[in-house]
Amino acid sequence: MPETAFELRSVTHGYARARNVLRNASLVCDPGARIGIVGPSGSGKTTLLGIAGLLIPPQEGSVVVAGREVHTERQASRLRREFIAWILQTTNVLGDRSALDNVAVALVARGADPARAQDIASRALDRVGLTAASRDRARNLSGGELQRLAVARAMATQPSLLIADEPTASLDAANRDMVVDSLFSNLPTQTALLLASHDAECYVHCDQLYELRDGHLTRMA
What we know:
- The protein is of the alpha/beta class.
- Helices cover 32% and strands 26% of the residues.
- The protein has one domain (6-219): Rossmann fold, CATH 3.40.50.300.
- The protein has helices at 45-52, 73-83, 99-109, 114-127, 143-156, 173-185; strands at 6-14, 20-29, 34-38, 60-65, 68-69, 84-88, 161-165, 192-196, 208-213, 216-219.
- The mean pLDDT is 91.
């Protein structure tokens, strides 16, 4: 396990006709850290997550994932596949495949034996309370069930870094509580979590909070 799950080193990033949404932002995340990013809409939280998750190359500065500084898209692609998992507001599932298959496919993509992938997937779904729905097609699951499926799929891959971007935004309070509980209860000890949300309940279990405002990333707690 690397000494750090990821680092942002003096990252600056902006868009045409817009101010820099990140200004010399630095952040060190150790394995097992639970970090929440707060800030108003449009402050750049999703951009920060995209850079940390190697989807967006920063205009200035650098990113380190699993102890490796990223220099090329080829390197970023490999690190994304091997070390990073995502949970988003809108789940990206294979609607005609079962919940079990959706988790197993993610494992096979990372090199797991198909039979072992099915076993790991079954246990992951059990941990988030989806055993009874494991054979149901994903398109037939409720919104709350889909988000718990996303949690199971992400956790099953044992990522070094889990990025959650508004994971409860489309859920009612009851489903929100189940998803948050599933997320934090099943988070592997050495997996770092980077979370952004407008829902304060999502930050209850975070051990570090940062605010992103006017491009500046500041430690709050």
